[in-house]
Amino acid sequence: MPKLAELAGLIRSKNAGPFVLTFDIMFLDKNNYRTVKDSGVLSPALFAKLYRCPVENVRFYECDNALAFKFSIPRPVFQGEPGDGDLHGGQQFSPLMDILIPA
Amino acid sequence: MQAVKFIAASGGLGGGKIDGAAFGEAMKLQPDFVASDAGTTDAGPYSLGSGRPAYPRESVMRDLALILPAARRAGIPVIIGSAGTAGLDSQVDWLLDIARDIANDNGLKVRTAVIHSEQNKDYIRGLYRANKLRALDPAPHFDEEVLDRSSHIVGMMGVEPLQQALKNGAELILAGRCSDAALYAALPIMKGIPPSLAWHAGKIVECGALCCEVSGKGSIFGSVSQNDILIRPFGKNLRCTTQSVAAHTLYENGDPFLHVEASGTMDLTRSVFEQVDDVSVRVTGSEFIPAETYTIKLEGAEQVGYQSIIIGGVRDPLIISQLDSWIDGVRKKILASVTDVFGGKIPATAFRLDFHIYGKNAVMGALEPNTDNMPHEVGIVLEVTASTQPLATKIAELSRQPLLHHPIPEWKGAITGFACLHNPAVIDRGPVYRFCLNHVALPDTPLEMFRTSFVNIG
């Protein structure tokens, strides 16, 4: 079973403003995107489990024309507040890389 | 009706991403205006709180000097938004000073509209008391005490103040905090282009070449008509694809389809992207839902305190194997030392200690799933945040001994369990800020929160 990182062209995270973190899983190849979409593996429940956050906080989008999936959650610590360790939110994605996709 | 053509010179004025030759090529297509965003919250609350721009004067001057003389020669307006990073009044004036130097250097006379967007505390207090502030989700707690503590508050303008300046003959607009997409939507909407396409065009090009397959130096040429948007990059190896243009609307946005602006919401659910040639993309089908209530997004920063830090590492596997309890012990020793040295005069609320443990969860904090596999070495940054700089410095100084010598049961005798990176070990960071607003204001008119003045420079 391939890992998500092996199928995607880019997996990234970033601030969406100072209060929201957003995660993009993007594909170069339509077939890979379809494989992941059809597998139904990506879901708010899976994300909530991986990131140990409440599922009701997770927004999930499938963007067919961009060949991309997106998750968004409220920032656990708002950007730049004492305790925040990632000012730009760019290094939050790696738990998504190892998700196994039944091909 | 003719299409309105424009150049998005750069996604961030001062970022050094404008290629002079490529920009000159794009200018040959006779655009109707040139625009560039010059700010962001992505740099953090410091610029908004302190007033310091995130880019040096020289790099902002370099970028604006590539745009302004060429646009003046062509007789088209230049629109710059979110001047000086946060769009503070002082930062708009800082950019005006830079523009004046460019005008003088190039023998240009430029009728310049300066639009200030900073918000008076009494005005915000009035909105708060009149129930005309709405919290977005999620939002920090806000009340009049937070307002009183805030350093600066700006309102993010929509297209209307820009349109007013253009109607009054502005050749250069230096705007305070401004919606990025509004920079590109203002003139097309004025000329009768549908807001749906004008706004979406702005959304695509606001970050410059980031809407390309691989980003690089260069500018984006756009054309927006009654029926479609055309996007074409100018710069070495820049290429827009249907996917790259579609995907750019994901970037730094929580929702890829709905984008809220002051006067309404872009709905890109039904947008269609077509490849026109190797590098250009055509977009149709975007929609815009006018807002029932006009809203202005507010951004505010308040000072949290002052900070001092100590950076170091631990290599002892025995400490690393019990790191949480060791850090807990260090923390207790620091607190005891502060109580002891200051005779209990420093309340616990006057400072806070944050340990960032690199190798464990410094980067992801509470989101880190992998906390069991400890590495052979960890890095520690201790941040002391306190009400004054001298207090932060002193508490950090009191933290060095607990970090160095806090014992573990396995070793009998005095240990030195922390490797300091620096001498002095303590680094003062000065004032630190937090974002204190994620709210919108409900003004009576789109213009009432913004103040425009005209200045002739050069």
Oligomeric organization of the protein chains: heterodimer
Order of helices and strands of chain A: HEEHHEE
Topology, number of strands of chain B: 21
Report mean pLDDT of chain B, rounded to a whole number.
97
Strand content of chain B: 25-35%
Strand order of the largest sheet of chain A: 1-2-4-3
Helix content of chain A: 10-25%
In short:
The complex is a heterodimer of chains A (103) and B (458). Chain A has 103 residues and is α+β, with helices and mostly antiparallel strands.
Written account of the structure:
The complex is a heterodimer of chains A (103) and B (458). With 103 residues, chain A is α+β, with helices and mostly antiparallel strands. Chain A has 3 helices and 4 strands; from the N terminus they run αββααββ. Chain A has helices spanning 4-7, 30-39, 44-51, and strands at residues 10-15, 20-26, 59-63, 68-74. In chain A, strands 1-2-4-3 form a 4-stranded antiparallel β-sheet, with no helix packed on it. The longest helix of chain A is centred in the middle third of the chain and has 10 residues, at 30-39. Chain A is elongated, with a radius of gyration of 14 Å. Helices cover 31% and strands 29% of the residues of chain B. Chain B has 458 residues and is α+β, with helices and mostly antiparallel strands. In chain B, 49% of the residues are buried. The chains are: A alpha+beta (103), B alpha+beta (458). Chain A binds chain B through residues 14-20, 22, 24, 26, 28, 50-53, 59, 61, 63, 65-68, 70, 72, 74-88, 91-92, 95, and chain B through 41-42, 44-46, 136-140, 242-243, 246-247, 249-257, 271-273, 304, 352, 354, 356, 362-367, 369-370, 383, 385, 432-435, 438.
Descriptive labels:
heterodimer, A: 103 residues, alpha+beta, 4-stranded antiparallel beta sheet, 3 helices, 4 strands, B: 458 residues, Alpha-Beta Plaits, 10-stranded mixed beta sheet, 8-stranded antiparallel beta sheet, elongated
